Amino acid sequence: MMLNIVRWCRNYLRLCVFFIAALVGLQVPGFKDDYGHALRAAMVETNAAVAPFKDDAEQFFDGSLTKLLAHYQQSADPVYAKGGDNLATLLQRSETLQNALNEFSQYPYLHLVRSPVPSIGIQVWHNYTPQIQLNLEALASAVIFALLVSWTIEALFVLMVLALMRAAHMLRPARTQA
Q: With 90 as the cut, is the pLDDT of residue 177 above it?
């Protein structure tokens, strides 16, 4: 009787874990979409900030931002040199965002797992509103995530039971021959 109650509770616990994991999995495509929008917006903003410098580079340095940057940084005027440092930061940000956008465009989920832009990921995370998209991508994400979480928890449970059985076996007194 007690064993049946334990099995019943375990089965309901499995269902609850699967259901909660599926709900979390449904959120992944929405987060991915929000991250992509924020990444594109940051790229547009950075391009707008770099545009005047590109115009200066076209006018004075045959379009070379590297030569413009070197000109700023080699200046004896500390304010002008500091402006060069700021330009270098801006160009680095532009390159980082462009690389991230290229990777995101090809492999969005891999990019989110492997190398998201931290500032954008944190911004999206803090402003994320849960949403349920009912499309094939969201449903597949939900099922895959729920299965992975369920299988992981089940495997941990089995390992725990095996460890407890082994510990109980080791603690049992050795039987003596009569």
A: no
Helix 2-60 to helix 118-127 angle (10° resolution) is 130
Number of residues that make up the chain:
178
CA distances from 60 to 46, 57, 97, 123 (A): 22, 5, 26, 37
Query: Sign of torsion, CA 106 129 142 7?
Result: positive
- CA dihedral (145, 148, 149, 151) in degrees, to 10, reads 150
In contact, 46 and 94? CB cutoff 8 Å: yes
CB 81 within 8 A of CB 73: yes
Token digits of residue 27: 């959120």
Q: How far apart are CA 147 and CA 165, in angstroms?
A: 27
pLDDT score of 16 = 92
Q: What are phi and psi of 157, to 5 degrees?
A: -65, -45
The pLDDT tens digits of the residues spanning 43-55 come to 999 999 999 999 9
Task: Give, in degrees to the nearest 5, the angle at Cα 90 between 87 and 93.
Answer: 150
Residue 125: pLDDT over 70: yes
Amino acid at 113: V
**Band of the pLDDT at 138, cuts 50, 70, 90?**
very high
Closest CA to 119 of 39, 31, 33: 39
